[in-house]
Amino acid sequence: MARSDVAVLLTGVGKRYDIVSAFAEHAFTIAADPSPLAPAQYAADVRAAPPRIDDPDYVPFLLDLCEKHNVGAVVPLTDLDLEVLASARPQLPAFVPDAEIARDTFDKFGAHELLLRHGLPSPPTVLPPTEPASYPVMVKPRQGSGARSIHSAADRHEMEFFIQYVKEPVMIQRLMQGPEFSVDLLSDLEGRCLNAIPRTMIESRGGESIKGSVIHDEELIGLGRSVVEALGVRGPCTVQAFRDAEIGLGITDVNTRFGGAFPAPMYAALPGRTYPELIVKMARGESVEPHVGEFRHGHTFTRWYWQIELDEQMRPTGRDIVESGPRPPR
User: Fold this and answer.
1) Structural domain containing residue 54
2) Fewer Cβ neighbours under 10 Å: the N or C end of the chain?
3) What is the predicted pLDDT for the residue at 206?
4) What is the tens place of the pLDDT at every residue in 224-267?
């Protein structure tokens, strides 16, 4: 797919160099991040430093970028501005769900209740001081991200300790016993699921999957599709679930954005059907037909880190610690 005449604006790009560079293959790309040290911005055509998300000038700043660069899609790469972008639709062509869904999924207890209202499986979950039905449990921040401040508790004593230890509102959720999976999904602007690509979670660091395998699992594909279509998700979404030996599948997280293991659905996609390509097509006003379950599977990814050198004016030098960049796999 050639580079499009319509641009894509990515917000909160942080270190997601993989996502920004993938979009830049197919469209003029603007990276918005307030930090001059956010490495992913250097994969974009244009770098922009917006105001804080809670600043009243945040949305006007993005609207100005959209008008200036003919932006057809605004795609957030963090949870932080999902509700703000949702509230600015349709002025802002944001690939996000309605504001209420963005708000409920950002609050993990709100997400639990939302899933149950739609008849979708979520592990038994309560708020303190309600006693859980059984132990062990997980003590989790209601608005946590990156696996921050999540603690397992074997009994009431440990649970009460961690409730006091974590300095923010928490919820208590059954500790799921069994393998963990994620489903990387993409929906169109009408909320139709275009594809659902499950993967195992072999190893994670800081809540981000760094090793995993793409699998073809009809139950997980169906579960992911049910979630995004029930919630009216627009754009990317990641659904995390455990397959517990006693209670079966239970959804532990719904993130209405790209997941940490973005390379997995990229490797799995059939030619012309990577999620960035499909978003660019939709940004141009093209219709994309659902192709749920059509992807490559059986491959495994393992990830590592690299870096960019900046000069005194915060411009990339083009140098690397090895002469020709990272050594290709052999």
Assistant:
1) 1-94
2) C
3) 76
4) 999 999 999 999 999 999 999 999 999 999 999 999 899 999 99
Q: What does the block give as tokens for 154?
A: 């074997």
Dihedral (C-alpha) 125, 127, 132, 137: value to the nearest 10 degrees?
A: 70
**Residue 76 Cα distances to 44, 154, 168, 296, angstroms:** 14, 37, 25, 26
Measured in residues, the chain has a length of: 330
Q: How far is CA 293 from the centre of its chain?
A: 20
3-class state of residue 189 by DSSP: coil
Integer CA distances (angstroms), 154 to 77, 117, 249, in order: 35, 29, 21
pLDDT along the chain (330 residues), means of 10: 84 96 97 96 97 97 98 97 96 97 96 98 97 96 79 97 96 96 97 98 86 97 98 97 96 95 94 98 97 97 91 93 83
Query: Is the same domain home to 249 and 322?
Result: yes
Angle at 33 between CA 59 and CA 7, to 5 degrees: 70
Residues 247 and 330 in one domain: yes
Pick from 76, 94, 112: which residue ends a domain? 94
In sequence order, what DSSP letters do the residues of 211-236 get, joined into one string? EEEB---HHHHHHHHHHHHHHT--EE
* 42 and 118 both lie in a single domain: no
Amino acid at 145: S
Instruction: Output the CA–CA distances (angstroms, integers) from residue 169 to 54, 150, 165, 243, 256, in the order listed.
Output: 21, 12, 11, 27, 22
